[in-house]
Amino acid sequence: MLFGLQHSVMARPWFKERIVGRLPPPFERCTYVHMANLALFALIALWQPIPSEVWNVGSVFAREAMWALFAIGWIILFLGAWSFGIRDLLGIRQMQAWAHGEPQPRRQLKTGWLYRWLRHPMYVGVLLGVWATPRMTLGHALLALGLTGYVLIAMRYEERDLRQRFGRAYMQWRDVRR
Question: Which of 18, 44, 73, 87 could make an S-S bridge to 93, C-beta 3.0–4.6 Å?
Answer without folding.
Answer: 87
